[in-house]
C-alpha cells in the first residue's frame, strides 16, 4: 500500500516537473489568442443569399468550378438527422486559398465559406443542416482557379434509417 502511494506521488511530481519545464521554456504557450475577425466588407453576404450551386459559386468567386478528383469529401451517404450532417473536406491541390461548402437544395446553397491562409493545411470540418436529400458540393480555390467535388447525401425521414 505504501509503495503504491509513493509511486503515485513520484509520478505526480514528475508530471508536474515536466509541465513546469514545458510552460517555462515556451514549448507550451501560456496564452491563447482569438482568431481575427474579418471586416464587414469581406463578408460574402450576397453569396449566402444566392440560390443555386452554380450561381452561388459565380457570386462568391466570380468564376465557374471544374470537377476535381483531388478533393476528398468525408460525409455520410445516409444522414439520419439532417440537422447535423458531419462533413470533412481535404485536398491535395496546391496553394489553396479558399474552401466553400454548398448544399444544393437548401434555400440558400452556401452553407460555409473558409479563407485558408498560406501555409495552412487545406482541411475543414463542419456540420451542415440539410432539409432533404440532395448533393453537397465542396469548392476549393487553388492557384486562382475553382475546383469542385460533389456527393449525394440521403436524409431519412424521422431518423429511422430507411
TrEMBL record:
Residues 59-160 form the Ig-like SoxY domain. It comes from the Bacteria. InterPro entries: SoxY (IPR032711), SoxY_sf (IPR038162), Sulphur_oxidation_SoxY (IPR016568), TAT_signal (IPR006311). Coiled coil: none annotated. Pfam families: SoxY. This is Thiosulfate-binding protein SoxY. It comes from Marinobacter subterrani.
Amino acid at each position: 500500500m505504501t509503495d503504491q502511494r509513493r509511486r503515485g506521488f513520484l509520478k505526480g511530481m514528475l508530471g508536474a516537473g515536466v509541465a513546469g519545464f514545458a510552460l517555462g521554456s515556451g514549448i507550451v504557450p501560456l496564452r491563447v489568442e482569438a482568431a481575427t475577425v474579418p471586416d464587414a466588407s469581406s463578408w460574402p453576404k450576397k453569396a449566402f443569399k444566392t440560390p443555386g450551386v452554380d450561381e452561388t459559386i459565380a457570386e462568391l468567386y466570380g468564376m465557374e468550378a471544374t470537377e476535381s478528383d483531388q478533393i476528398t469529401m468525408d460525409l455520410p451517404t445516409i444522414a439520419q438527422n439532417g440537422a447535423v450532417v458531419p462533413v470533412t473536406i481535404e485536398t491535395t491541390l496546391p496553394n489553396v486559398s479558399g474552401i466553400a461548402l454548398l448544399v444544393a437544395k437548401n434555400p440558400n446553397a452556401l452553407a460555409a465559406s473558409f479563407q485558408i491562409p498560406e501555409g495552412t493545411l487545406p482541411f475543414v470540418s463542419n456540420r451542415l443542416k440539410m432539409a432533404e436529400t440532395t448533393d453537397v458540393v465542396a469548392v476549393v480555390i487553388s492557384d486562382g482557379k475553382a475546383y469542385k467535388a460533389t456527393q449525394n447525401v440521403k436524409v431519412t425521414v424521422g431518423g429511422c434509417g430507411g
